[in-house]
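Can't paste images in this forum, so I'm doing it all in text. The chain is below; anyone willing to post the predicted structure tokens underneath?
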Amino acid sequence: MTVNLAKIAEFFHTEIPRVPSGKYVHFITLRYSKSFPIFRTDDVLNTVRTTAGLQDQTMINHLVMFKRKQTTPERLVGRELLRSLGLTSGTEADKEKYCAYNGEDSCKKCPDCIIYGFAIGDKGSERSKVLSDSAFSLTAYEVSHRLFTFNAPSEQGTMSEGGKMRSSINGQDHVLPEIIFPAIETLRDPTKESFIYVLGNLLRTKRYGAQETRTGVMENHIVGIVVADGEIFSNLHLTQGLYDACETTNNHLPHFSQVKENTQKVVQELLEREAVHTNFCLYGEDLQHVLQEVQGIYKSPQELQQTMQKLYEQTSTYASQYGAFASEKTKKEQGNSKKGRKSKKEQQQELPLEEEE
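Text version of the structure:
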């Protein structure tokens, strides 16, 4: 039986629940550099030293793609889409639709605010429903980077100006092309529409890291989708499992196709050690079928508009019932209802009426 989007959506919510409800979608992804990304927080590339594999206990230095280096570009791509569809606006004068990123002027109700979360001091917050973690290069830092020297020529295109040599020469460490960062991005408590939104952001984001307008092109290859009732293993665990499976060393760097072929086997082995129930594990033809369905929605302007409009209605409803726009009284009543307690008003209504004399 071919698995399609409608089939896996049977396990999703039809509306966003108030509290976590034990439904998780894990997107197993291979982030694959196609140019020279720069992942740094200071002046050098981010690295960390860990054991190479789960079996191979050799210590190696990994390049690190910190969590926000992954989710921030994807959020911005999603926010761009919402503006293009007229669901949100970047114009302050449009008070109903205006939403600022990472600021006190966040609208607190659009798909980006509700799904990826926000925090505005005492003005409200929403926990992200997209769970991510730092990703680690499959290969060691020593074979995954190179230092390049660059210059800034004058308007004449030379390094001299007015008879004097310019001194604008500098060096920058870059990640090399075709470096693989295995990563798992998780969507908690999905609806069909939020699944399409987050998966679309993964598929449509092409640039990561610093200086992204001139470099940083990467491809996200979705190599598996796991629907389960809990969280699964970490990015580092997946990377180390793949390191063993691909027999990676500094003298043997695995080809992307080899890593892709090994991913299903490694994921299945690691899942067997997890205390979770899996509803679906999509690979191969089933996975490609679902990905093509989602890509088809993004290629159809009318279908995309309908899908994102429905998602916007879901997040707006969530915001008004449980989020930043729900009154304290409503939240308290909903909390009492969940705990089986009744509000004071409900208790008074149930008191027996006194008999009239």
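The longest helix spans residues 301-321. Residues 109 and 317 are 8 Å apart (CA to CA).
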